[in-house]
C-alpha cells in the first residue's frame, strides 16, 4: 500500500508518518494484515510535480494540511478549502479513486459557541467539498471531526492550551488559567493514530452529529456529540477525555513535583492521567531529564527511596557494605519484598514471640523475591568480605514518619 500524507510536518502528520514507518519497517507488528510499502510526505515545501506524482500512485490519502491560526482570517478559506480543492482536482486528473481522509474539526458543526467561527466555516466548506467529490467520483471519503488535540510534539504557545501548560510548567514558566471550570474535550494523538490505522484497514468508526438537542440512551446530543452508527456520514475517534483547565493544571503541577515528592500518581491503563503524564514528559528540558535522589549514607552503606505511590507503596534500594547486618525490626501491618540484585546475602526472619529463625540465602546470580511478613522481625546480612550487597525493596505503603510502624528487635 502507498500512502500520501499532506501536512506531513504538522503535529498530526509527524506522528502519523513516524507510526506508518514503524509498520512499514516491521517495528510495529500489531497490525499483521496491514502492509505499507511507500509513504509520500507532502508539505509546504513540496512541489506541484511531487503532488501530482503522489496523487497518481497513492492507494490512500490522509489530508491533514490546513490553517488554524492565520494572521488574516481570509487565509482560513485558502488553507482549509483551497488546498483541499487542489488536492481533489489532482486526484481527478490522475483518475485515482482511492479513499481520501479529511482532517476536519468539531468546530465545523457550527454548533453552540462555534456558530460564527471563521475556522469552523472554512472546515465546513472543506467537508462539503469532499462529500461532493465522493458523489462525483465514487471514491470513498472519510471526514473526521477532531476535538482539541493533545500529545507529544504539539506546538506550545500556539493553538493548544494543554501544550502550552505542559511546556511552561515543565520549564518552570507561569501559566494563566482564566477560568479553571472550563471543560475541554481532548483527543490524544496515540488514540488518533490507532483510528487512522483502523481506517487503513477499512474499519473506520462512523457517526452522525444530531443537531437538535435530545437525550438518547442517556447521551445528550447537542450538535457537538457524535452518535456512533454503522453507516454514519462522518468518522470519528471513539476515545476522548474531558477535563477542566483547573484539573489539567493541578495534574501537571503534580507531575512537575514528582522528582521532589517521589510520589507517582495513579495511572490506570488508558486513563487521562496516564496520557497527560506522557505528554508532559515530552516537554522536559534536558537538564530535567535527570534528577538527584536523596541517599541516606552511614558506615553500613546507603538507603535510597526511589519511588512512592499513594496506593501501591514505595520502592527503595539498599546497599550494604561487606559483613554488615541491616534491619533487625518488625512491623504490625507493613510488609515488604526484598530482592537482591547484586552480591551474596542472608535474610533472616523470626515471628515475634517465637524462637524459630527462618533463613533465606540470596544472591544476584539468581534473583528472587523474599517476603518480609507482618509480625516477623527480620534482617539482611551481607555475607561477602569484599563486595556490596544491593537489594531492591518494595513496601506496601509509603513511609510515614508520624506512624512508622517499625519496632527494633534482633532476629
Q: What does the model show?
A:
The protein is of the alpha+beta class and 411 residues long. The protein contains 8 helices and 25 strands. It has helices at 11-24, 48-57, 74-93, 118-137, 161-170, 189-200, 245-261, 272-281, and strands spanning 2-6, 38-42, 60-63, 100-105, 141-146, 148-150, 183-188, 206-208, 214-216, 219-221, 227-228, 234-235, 241-244, 263-264, 295-298, 301-309, 314-320, 325-330, 336-342, 344-351, 357-363, 369-372, 376-382, 389-395, 407-408. The strands form 6 sheets. Strands 14, 15, 16, 17, 19, 22 and 24 form a 7-stranded mixed β-sheet that branches. β9 (214-216) and β10 form a beta hairpin. The chain starts with a strand and ends with a strand.
Short description:
The protein has 411 residues and is an alpha+beta fold.
Helical percent range? 25-40%
Number of strands: 25
Shape: elongated
Structural class: alpha+beta
Mean pLDDT: 93
Summarize the biggest pleated sheet: 7 strands, mixed
Question: Spans of 5+ residues with little confidence (pLDDT < 50)?
Answer: none
Strand content: 25-35%
Distance between the termini: 68 Å
Radius of gyration (CA) equals 29 Å
Tally of alpha and pi helices? 8
Oligomer: single chain
List the helices and strands and how they pair.
Blueprint: E1 2-6, H1 11-24, E2 38-42, H2 48-57, E3 60-63, H3 74-93, E4 100-105, H4 118-137, E5 141-146, E6 148-150, H5 161-170, E7 183-188, H6 189-200, E8 206-208, E9 214-216, E10 219-221, E11 227-228, E12 234-235, E13 241-244, H7 245-261, E14 263-264, H8 272-281, E15 295-298, E16 301-309, E17 314-320, E18 325-330, E19 336-342, E20 344-351, E21 357-363, E22 369-372, E23 376-382, E24 389-395, E25 407-408
Amino acid at each position: 500500500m502507498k500512502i500520501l500524507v499532506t501536512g506531513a510536518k504538522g503535529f498530526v502528520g509527524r506522528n502519523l508518518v513516524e507510526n506508518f514507518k514503524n509498520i512499514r519497517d516491521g517495528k510495529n507488528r500489531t497490525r499483521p494484515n496491514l502492509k505499507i510499502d511507500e509513504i509520500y510526505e507532502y508539505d509546504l515545501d513540496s512541489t506541484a510535480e511531487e503532488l501530482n506524482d503522489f496523487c497518481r500512485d497513492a492507494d490512500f490519502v490522509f489530508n491533514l494540511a490546513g490553517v488554524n491560526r492565520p494572521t488574516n482570517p481570509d487565509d482560513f478559506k485558502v488553507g482549509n478549502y483551497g488546498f483541499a480543492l487542489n488536492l481533489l482536482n489532482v486526484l481527478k486528473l490522475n483518475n485515482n479513486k482511492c479513499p481520501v481522509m479529511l482532517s476536519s474539526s468539531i468546530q465545523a458543526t457550527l454548533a453552540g459557541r462555534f456558530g460564527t467561527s471563521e475556522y469552523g466555516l472554512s472546515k465546513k466548506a472543506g467537508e462539503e467539498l469532499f462529500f461532493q467529490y465522493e458523489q462525483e467520483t465514487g471514491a470513498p471519503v472519510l471526514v473526521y471531526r477532531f476535538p482539541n488535540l493533545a500529545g507529544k510534539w504539539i506546538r506550545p504557545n500556539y493553538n493548544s492550551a494543554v501544550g502550552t501548560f505542559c511546556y511552561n510548567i515543565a520549564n518552570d514558566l507561569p501559566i494563566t488559567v482564566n477560568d479553571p471550570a472550563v471543560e475541554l474535550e481532548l483527543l490524544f494523538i496515540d488514540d488518533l493514530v490507532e483510528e487512522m490505522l483502523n481506517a487503513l484497514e477499512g474499519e473506520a468508526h462512523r457517526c452522525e452529529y444530531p443537531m437538535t438537542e435530545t437525550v438518547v440512551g442517556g447521551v445528550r446530543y447537542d450538535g457537538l456529540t457524535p452518535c456512533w452508527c454503522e453507516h454514519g456520514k462522518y468518522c470519528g475517534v471513539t476515545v476522548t477525555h474531558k477535563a477542566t483547565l483547573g484539573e489539567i493544571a493541578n495534574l501537571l503541577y503534580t507531575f512537575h513535583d514528582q522528582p521532589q515528592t517521589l510520589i507517582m500518581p495513579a495511572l490506570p491503563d488508558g486513563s487521562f492521567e496516564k496520557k497527560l503524564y506522557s505528554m508532559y514528559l515530552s516537554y522536559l528540558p534536558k537538564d530535567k531529564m535527570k534528577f538527584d535522589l536523596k541517599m541516606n549514607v552511614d558506615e553500613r552503606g546507603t538507603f535510597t527511596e526511589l519511588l512512592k505511590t499513594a496506593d501501591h507503596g514505595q520502592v527503595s534500594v539498599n546497599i550494604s557494605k561487606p559483613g554488615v547486618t541491616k534491619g533487625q525490626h518488625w512491623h504490625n501491618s507493613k510488609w515488604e519484598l526484598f530482592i537482591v540484585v547484586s552480591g551474596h546475602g542472608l535474610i533472616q526472619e523470626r515471628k515475634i514471640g517465637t524462637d524459630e529463625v527462618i533463613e533465606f540465602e540470596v544472591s544476584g546470580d539468581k534473583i528472587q523475591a523474599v517476603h518480609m511478613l507482618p509480625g516477623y522481625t527480620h534482617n539482611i546480612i551481607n555475607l561477602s568480605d569484599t563486595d556490596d550487597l544491593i537489594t531492591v525493596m518494595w513496601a506496601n505503603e509509603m513511609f510515614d514518619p508520624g506512624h512508622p510502624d517499625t519496632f527494633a528487635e534482633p532476629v
